[in-house]
Amino acid sequence: MSGNEVIFRKESQIEERELRLLTELPDCCAAGTNLMNLIFQVMELDGSLDTSIHHDEKPGCFHTMSIESDSSSVESAIRYAFVHGSCKVSSLSLPENEGVFSCRVFHSRYPELQMSVKIQVTSAPTSEREESGYSTPHSITTPPPESGIPSITNPWPTPCSQFGVLAIRSSSSLALSSETSLMDMPQYTEV
């Protein structure tokens, strides 16, 4: 301002948004299982979906989501693409040990769009005893691997199975081409 004359004036408008988890999480899950098909959305203050949050590499509109957990896992290097305000995490591995699993989920360009996810992890069920007296990790209704019959369902009944949690062990040897490249996670469904 020079005297009574305005020389320069800057106005800015801040849009407030919130990152939300739409998928209902169970109270607890067995150690070593996976949370499946987690849906996150960026919401406006009025409760509407912000469809402008859309990943498009061509014009340089990078809208991806990252997950950081206390325990080191491959998920931290994976970026999940937002599609018109929504982002789907096909599979999130839970740790092998008991306790509270917590992770921070955040927009990779707008770190203020973040949330924490916490879930109680309980010990995995022990293997069943068959009539012969030896332990086997395969239930009577689940074929053993040598039978050649594929099975990806959880052979142990858990309260989490109704929420799409499968007992599929993740491989720690997943090779990523780069930390910022997008990676399609495999889809698993319960049979």
From TrEMBL:
Residue segments, region Disordered: 122-147
Protein name: Uncharacterized protein
Organism of this sequence: Arabidopsis suecica (Swedish thale-cress)
